[in-house]
Amino acid sequence: MTIQEIQIWEKSFVNKKGIAPDEKKASFIAVCKLLEEAGEMAKDLLEGNWDEIQAEVTDVIVFACKVANIAEDFHGVEPLTKVMEEKLGFCDERTYNKKTNKLDKPKHDKFK
Known about the structure:
The protein is mainly alpha-helical.
């Protein structure tokens, strides 16, 4: 399943369940749920509950896509898939310093 397919599924789910597309409420819920799911994923990781990790990662991805849908639908930002392509390309250009365990941060007009 692609990111774009997840975004389409999320929009369909919201419509199917009759969830009103109120930007402020949707944004609040999406960010709170994203943080909650990230916390659950971290807890399972720390506790070694590997059988739960994939489900929690899925929840994190879905709510991150929901935030992206809100940005696209209400604020006309670039599609997530386009930004991901550009961002991953930028990451490929970075070099890794084994001594510091960090990637360099070359100047880029779009990514900080």
